[in-house]
């Protein structure tokens, strides 16, 4: 299975996957014109990894801002992770936020409320 690398732009986060490590990392702002187009490859990669690997998957998020359509895409990703978790898969989310940006922390908390898998929210000084 190939790793996925999507470079960041001014309005999109970088998205990097590592099959060997079992990780997905997203970093940056997310306000693309078409969130479905941006996040679909990552969703497919996650689904394929969970179906094939039989190993834990960790999603590391360093997202600074998300527009409404990006929030919807993240909900879809979390739904994929929740389904895998309910089926016995081992998934974890680590959401890192700048301590100066409480809005992102509040958003992460809202997502966490709907998830039963391990979901860690950590402030860090940027």
What does this structure look like?
The chain is 39% helix and 31% strand. The protein has helices at 35-52, 68-86, 102-113, and strands spanning 5-6, 14-18, 23-30, 57-66, 91-98, 119-124. Helix 1 (35-52) runs parallel beside helix 2. It is globular, with a radius of gyration of 14 Å. The mean pLDDT is 95.
CATH class label = Alpha Beta
**Helix/strand structural class:** alpha/beta
**Gross morphology:** globular
Radius of gyration: 14 Å
Order of helices and strands: EEEHEHEHE
β-strand percent reads 25-35%
| C-alpha end-to-end distance | 33 Å
CATH architecture: 2-Layer Sandwich
Give the biggest beta sheet. 6 strands, mixed
Can you tell me the number of structural domains?
A: 1
**Low confidence ranges:** none
Count of β-strands: 6
Number of helices: 3
Helix content: 25-40%
């Amino acid at each position: 299975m190939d790793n996925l690398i999507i470079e960041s732009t001014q309005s999109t986060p970088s998205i990097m996957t590592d099959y060997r490590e079992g990780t997905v990392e997203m970093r940056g702002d997310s306000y693309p014109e078409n969130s479905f187009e941006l996040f679909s490859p990552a969703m497919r990669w996650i689904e394929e990894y969970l179906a094939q690997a039989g190993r834990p998957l960790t999603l590391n998020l360093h997202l600074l801002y998300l527009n409404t359509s990006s929030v919807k895409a993240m909900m879809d990703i979390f739904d994929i992770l929740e389904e895998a978790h309910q089926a016995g898969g081992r998934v974890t989310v680590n959401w890192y936020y700048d301590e100066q940006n409480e809005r992102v922390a509040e958003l992460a908390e809202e997502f966490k409320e709907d998830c039963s898998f391990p979901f860690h929210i950590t402030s860090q000084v940027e």
